[in-house]
Records
---
Amino acid sequence: MKKLLSIILSAALCIGSIAAVASDTDTTVTLQINNPVMTVNGANKEIDPGMGTVPVIINERTLLPVRAVVEELGGIVNWNGDTREVTLNYGTDEILLTIDSDVAYLNNEAKTLDSKPTIINDRTMLPIRFIAENFGFGVDWNGEEQIVTITKTAKAVAEPTVEPTVEPTDAPTAEPTEVPSDNQAEESKILVAYFSNTGNTENIAESIVSAMGADVYEIEAAQPYTDEDLNYNDSSTRATVEQNDPTARPEIGNLLESIDEYDTIYLGYPMWWGQAPKIVYTFLESYDFTGKTIIPFCTSGSSPIGSSDDNLHPAASGANWVDGRRFSVSASSSEISAWAAEGCRIK
Ligand SMILES: Cc1cc2nc3c(=O)[nH]c(=O)nc-3n(C[C@H](O)[C@H](O)[C@H](O)COP(=O)(O)O)c2cc1C
C-alpha cells in the first residue's frame, strides 16, 4: 500500500510540475504571515488545500512552505524521507536542502544557510531568499502588511533537466506529509504540556501542536477531577480548597520520565480562581527546567491571564519565561499558530 502511495504521489508530482514549467509566463506569488491563502497572479489560492499551512516568522526569519512556492513558480520539488532531504530543480539549477541542516548544495557546491529548513505541520518550511537568489526570482518584503512577494519573469524560465523520481520505493518520495510525525517531534524539541478538564485548554494545545510540529503531553491528575470537584459555586469542593491552599500539590498520574529532550515547553492550563491549578505547580516542580523556555497559555471564562503566569515562575526559576497569553474558547487556529510562532521567536 505504501509503495502504491509513493507511486501515486510521485506521478502526481511529475504531472503537476511539468504542467507548471510549460506555462512560460511572468508569475507573481504573494504570501502573508499566518494567512493560509496566497495569491498567484492576483488570484487567491489556498497554499495547502485543507491543511491550513501558513507562512510564519521564527527567529526573525520568514519561513515559507517551499513546495507551494517553488511549484507555483515552475520548479520541481522532491522529498526523500529517508535522508530528510529536499531537492529543488528549476531550469538547469538544483538545490539540495536537508531538514535542520544549515548546509545546502547549489549544483553540488556547498553553501551555508543563515536559517535551517524545518518541518512545521508536516510541511517543509524555509527562508525563501536563498532559493530566490539562486533561482533568479525577485523577492520583496512588506513589513507593515507582512507580505512576501516573489516574482518570476518569463525570461528566467528554462526547461528542467532533471526529472522527478518516479520509481516506487518504500520511502516517501514526494510529500513531506510522509514524514512520520514522531520524527518531527524529536527534531523540533518542543513540548506542549497542558492540563484540561472540559477540553477548552486541550483544543488550544492541539492547535499549537499542529502549528509547531510539537510533542504533546496532557497532565492527568492521579485522582481525576469529578464535576463536583470542579463546582466553583461551592467553596468546599476540591478545586476551590486546593486553590486556597498554598501548599497543595495534587499528584500527577502520568508523569513523563524526563523532559530533557525539550528546549521549549508551551504550558497550558484553565484559569481557576484567577490562578493556574495547583497541579501545574506539581508538574513544574517535578523537573529541572533550567535553561528551557516556558511559554504559558490559558483559557478562562472571562478572566485575563493576570498574575497566573508570573506566579508560576518560582516553581521553575531556572527557566526562561515568556509572557503568557489567555485564549478565548473560540480562538481561531491562525490566531493560535501566529502566537505560538511568535512565542518561539521571543526566547
Ligand atoms: C474551579 C474553577 C475555577 C474557575 N475560575 C475561573 C476564573 O477565576 N476566571 C474565569 O474566567 N474562569 C474561571 N473558570 C472557568 C475556566 O477557566 C474555563 O472554563 C476554562 O476554559 C476551562 O478549561 P478546560 O476546559 O481546559 O478545563 C473556573 C473553572 C473552575 C472549574
Note: The domain at 2-178 is CATH 3.30.457.10 (Copper Amine Oxidase; Chain A, domain 1).
---
Amino acid sequence: MDHFDEEGKLIIPDKDSIKSELEKRGLKGKEDLHVTQVYCPNGHEMIMSDNAKFDGLPGIKLFLKGENKEDIVYISPFLNKRQRTGGDDFGLGDKLEVRCPICNEKMRVIGPCDCQWNGEYVMLSLDKNPDNRNAVCFCDIWGCPKGDVRLAGEVVAEYIRDYRL
Ligand SMILES: [Zn+2]
Ligand SMILES: [Zn+2]
C-alpha cells in the first residue's frame, strides 16, 4: 500500500481497507478489535470456546510461570484492553515466563518493553507458522501497563523509531 500520493501528501486509507487488512490478520470488529485465534510456536490454538470470557468473547489461555508461582491465566482478546482472569498470587513487577498451556513451549520474545522492570514483549502468533511474525504481543511483566494485547508490528515500529532518536 502506498502511504503518500504523487504530491507527497500522506494518504489516509479508508476505514474499509484498514478493516480488510486487519481481518486478513485474524482480527475482527470495528470499534473493538480483537483476535479470534492465536497459536503457540508449535501451532496449538490458545483461544478455545470454553476459555474465560471477556465481554462475551473467549480469552487467550496461557500458562504463566513466575519465580516460585505459576498459574493458568486468561487475557482479554481485545486489543489495548488490559484485562485478565487468574494470576492472583503474582505481584507487581514479577517477570513471567509465558508458556503454552498444552505443550509448555515458551512464547518467543520480539523486543524489549521500555518499562522500569526490563520487561520483554512476548509474541502470540496469528498464524500457525510463527516465522511469519504476523502476531500480537504483550509485556511479560505482571502489572506493566503494556500488558494489554497489541499489534506486534506497531511495537516493533515504535522500538525502531525510539532507537533512531
Ligand atoms: Zn503448544
Ligand atoms: Zn513492560
Note: The CA atoms of residues 63 and 101 lie 5 Å apart.
